[in-house]
């Protein structure tokens, strides 16, 4: 295939010089000869035939055939030299043309020879001169060209290109010649490709540099900020100016084209009266008919060329505007201050990009409509004045009334549009938050409650949507009725003024109204679009005015300074307006190579201190000085979707040796061995296919690989187990970073002795600072932290002592016997599983490419859409009303043409009053039809949008967790915003327009066939050709439309990820790289858009040409028939309708294609209504007792689990019993399957084999909500939702305030909440950002205290809190869950030492299971080794290590 392509490219480039002009002139001459041949035929047909004329006709016919043959030959030949027979023919042709002209002039002269024959001979001679030159000199030039070619093209005689997509193919638009640009032929290769196969993004050529965001964005940004140098003053007006400045050339060009189009479109109405008089026998000069036909045809051609290029260039402007805006929004999102971020959530910021920037891009369509309306109205009035005299003033007044009627409607629409956008923002914000936290919602069984919140928000949005669509229905009614109203007023004025109405003048007036109808029809659209765009521009301007991070917070230390970080008299506040700053009196200095530890209780300001050093917290006073590059590891891991390797390299070149060292130091090698694709594994969105520890270690690896000077770690060891934590501290902080400046926040006291400086935080101040031993005795705050740690250690020691003295009692004997069996069974399973895994066929990544339908949009999609609302009952009514409207419209025009005289001297068939009365009755009838149709259409559209929304959201919320793991939220949000918007606001009108335009087209065909059925002779083949063109175009257009959807999701996802990781991106100074990625993704999104609009114009241009030819033929037929055969009035009516033929024919196809493109939004929504659902929430036939589980015993038998059918097993046959009412600890290395076990217990993942019984009841047999509502969990990532403290603790609203306060007091948050203004109603921002990580964890503890279940799971629940808070949580749980079954997954060994039972997992198998004391007795057990390691680590040995 590629070789063929190369070959054809090579052949094209090897053709003789001037090949293209030769081919184009040949085609032009062929068409010209055909027109002359037809004209000659009609000319002699209307006069008499005789022998000489037959020979002339035959001669013209042969010439036409010959030139078509030569054109075809040139088109498909690959000659490098011109064939000799062609050269002879061209020389002969020139001399023959000269002879013919001289002969005609000599024998017949100007008088006898028809004008067109004379013109034909002159054209032949002019063309002949070019062909003579080609025949004599063409080859010489060609040979030189061929010799030069290998040098020019950069490849030798073998003709094999190194790059399939050659220069011509890369930029087809910018490399196209003038003819190719005029006719859109540069699109042909892509359309041909689309017909051969389903095209993908790599088949779509690159954008021209002028259309790339890299060219537009800098111009736009410089203009926007040039006036005042900062973003504070960005106003809507400045934004508009900058946008216009960035695209002024295209805007100017489209303005000129729009003007040319407007003038050309009025040529037809201007000439109709003359044409009717000509048909009536009033001739001004010879061949007047042919001159009129030529004028009509030429005006149509000019109209076609100008309109097509006007539309195409407008879309080009839209693509550029959209790209520039998205780039600017992205840049702004990266520099927003934390306060600004709190006022705009990530969901809202994404909405600015997906909805507002998109709308401003779409507005380019309407750019010139406003100033064109007055011009069109003035031209219309001039034509009316010529025909109807002073009655045109009445027409003007009527037009103004109609336009003024729109003002209140326009204002209403703007208001409703603004409210609609606000409510949509609120919904998208909530949806985005829910998708981020879907795992928690499923674990707690809250998803249906949160779905009802989204549905409520949507109901509010629907209220505004309903108002908006019904207002637009009224606007539609006013404007579809407008031309009728204007014509009634005008003709009425004529009657009153006594101006005689003649059919020619009336038809001219009707044609004028019809053209005036277009700007008036479009005016509501334009005004509504202006309203929408104004709202969007205001929103963007207000967003761009938000505060950025202070640029001068951090000062660079002087060169040669030994100080790495220094803060003097620092006072910082997240909220600059607040009277109590977040941090105050901060003074410390860190020298190069120092290790600084930051510790303190929950909420004391540790993370805020790191944020000060990063420049994220607004500085109230003081100075911050830094020296060197920074690297930062956040407390909540931020990983990008993409390969693990890309996350670690983070934009740096691969240095294999350094990379391996970093993997080793972060103990990632074992994890990478487990993963099917190693470091090439694609991480799902927000790292969903990695455990918390793995994400944290990838984050640490990213920082280590950067080779910075200053490293900031925000509690990185809390998310990993004890063994890994020790390894990380030794290898990373003491090893690889031994010579670097490191500041680490930690809750683990054992990591403190090795610090050169310890900062103890309390209430936003540094309460103590110094070395470990020095501050241990100098104050109480540090003593408290160390004391809590020692208490935990003493528990550990006593456990070991107890084990040594063999005092273990109770169930231990039974369990230990079982344990031996398990160990044997485990080894066997491990071998089995490893063999099994090898046999699994090539594994697939968890996150798959976005599914995109291929081929034709199924008729089923249309059918489902049409029948969703009321079973499709409204559809036949809508069609019937439109048919009735069309009939009444044609009837009223037919009446006017028939009932008025041709000229003044003819008696009118009816009285003037009857004429106007019937016309008014028909007009009122058609207006009522429009109103009914508009109301029915919006009712059906609104109902359908509502049903589809509810269906899709129900399916998404009921989808299994695996769906969210494998589907980036960008894809879901794209459907919930962009596609839902299309279904809300566009698709009903799109389907309506298609149906209405077809009905109008049929109406025109009926009228034209009434007059001249012979038109069908040409009409049928033309329609056939149109359909063929449409069929040829649609495969490419459809795939391009789908690619637009598919290319948008990565853009949204990257945008969303960059906003959530902006701190990390800034701390690594990677803003420019991320900006580049955004620009690349933007261009990938613009590419299919650009070529989609090019392909649309390619089709429309060809359809316009065909319909212009049809129109010309019908006119030629009308002037050729003998006088009196056809009623001139009715013939004129046919012409008035025919003037619209090309517009309507193109409009039908355009609507069809646009519908095919837009209906893809419905297809995408329907895709998500077919997601496989989770098992039922409640199974009525099998509901557990009200008090289940009463005992809490859990039996697990041969449990095997994998995350997806194409993934390997994660749990490989677990068998164990967890006794009821006992505390069980689950330990194991990161990735051993601990979290998977919990997910299976809550049925987030269904087992591949085996079963879990709780109190003898198989959990797979009951409903999910029955199961999840009876179990409690404190999850690994503490999650809070936007809302209030009350809604976070009790989302289902089941508890009283008294109970909530009780729970808050138990989890030590009562005092904290009482301090806040709103108490239980105090605000929680998105993700709980205004609460510290430890406080969020305590809120999660509060939730389980309220719920009080018999089975409680702690999934690494105390990872984010200091030891004192950890002890507090453990104590609270011991006190309130003494008789419950508690399963703890822990990294801190102390958390599981007081358990009754410990399970040690490795690679998805239980390797050890017993009481802690029994396991500690056996010094060779893996558990004993883990404890020993923790003890060593905790006995301050790091101080010695670092000293050595």
UniProtKB/TrEMBL annotation:
Residues 565-788, 1196-1428 form the ABC transporter domain. SMART domains: AAA. GO terms for cellular component: membrane. Residues 804-841 are annotated as: Disordered. It comes from the Eukaryota. It holds the Pfam family ABC_membrane. Residues 804-839 have a biased composition (Basic and acidic residues). It is found in: Membrane. The chain crosses the membrane at residues 21-42, 54-76, 88-105, 117-137, 251-272, 363-383, 390-409, 477-499, 862-885, 916-942, 987-1005, 1011-1029. Belongs to the ABC transporter superfamily. ABCC family. Conjugate transporter (TC 3.A.1.208) subfamily. InterPro entries: AAA+_ATPase, ABC1_TM_dom, ABC1_TM_sf, ABC_transporter-like_ATP-bd, ABC_transporter-like_CS, ABC_transporter_C-like, ABCC_6TM_D1, ABCC_6TM_D2. PROSITE patterns: ABC_TM1F, ABC_TRANSPORTER_1, ABC_TRANSPORTER_2. It is a multi-pass membrane protein. Keywords: ATP-binding, Membrane, Nucleotide-binding, Repeat, Translocase, Transmembrane, Transmembrane helix, Transport. This is Uncharacterized protein. Residues 252-532, 877-1157 form the ABC transmembrane type-1 domain. GO terms for molecular function: ABC-type transporter activity; ATP binding; ATP hydrolysis activity. Signal peptide: none annotated. It comes from Aquilegia coerulea (Rocky mountain columbine). The keyword ATP-binding applies.
